[in-house]
Amino acid sequence: MKESKYMIPAMKFGQPRTSCRNGNEVTRTRRKIRSEIILERRRQTKLQERADDGK
Question: Assuming Cys at both sites, which of 2, 8, 10, 49 could form a disulfide with 18, CB separation 3.0 to 4.6 Å?
Answer without folding.
Answer: 10
